[in-house]
Amino acid sequence: MEPGQVNVAYGLYPPWRGRGLATRAVLLAFPYVASEGGAEAVIKVEPGNPASAAVAQRAGFTPGGSAYDKDGTLYDRYVRTCTRPPGD
User: Fold this and answer.
1) β-strand 74-81 against 62-68: which pairing, if any?
2) How many Å apart are CA 41 and CA 63, to the nearest integer?
3) CA dihedral 80, 21, 13, 34 (to 10 degrees)
4) Conformational region of residue 74, where left means phi above 0, alpha means psi within -120 to 50, and beta covers everything else
5) 6: CB partners within 8 A, 6+ apart
6) What's the CA dihedral at 24, 57, 75, 51 to 10 degrees?
7) 67 beta partners
8) CA dist 26 to 4, 21, 22, 29, 63, Å?
9) What is the rounded CA–CA span in Å between residue 18 and residue 49?
10) How would you classify residue 87: left for phi > 0, otherwise alpha for psi between -120 and 50, otherwise beta?
11) Can you give the pLDDT at residue 72?
């Protein structure tokens, strides 16, 4: 992660998946991230998890390449620029 980037992570137990809850949570967090000075939000997705990638895309994130985490795990990155709410 670079300065100004915020890691956005989510997880749901199986009975709650497929209802749009993760997407809604990411969208609700966005104004807060921007108001606290976050410049860019990043979601890291394991390549074998298309459902998590779909959450990122539904929340307006775009593919940002792949990167290895410190522990050697490969992630696909999805990014979205943060903007401050009007009047902030």
Assistant:
1) antiparallel
2) 12
3) 40
4) beta
5) 33, 38, 40, 41, 42, 82
6) 70
7) 75
8) 17, 9, 6, 5, 16
9) 13
10) left
11) 95
When pLDDT is averaged across residues 11-15 and rounded to a whole number, the result is 94
CA nearest neighbour of 14 among 57, 58, 60, 51:
51
pTM over 0.90: no
Q: pLDDT tens for residues 23-53?
A: 999 999 988 888 899 999 999 999 999 999 9
* 29: phi then psi, degrees, rounded to nearest 5: -75, -25
HSE (side-chain half, CA atoms, 13 Å) at 6: 20
Tokens of 64: 């940002």
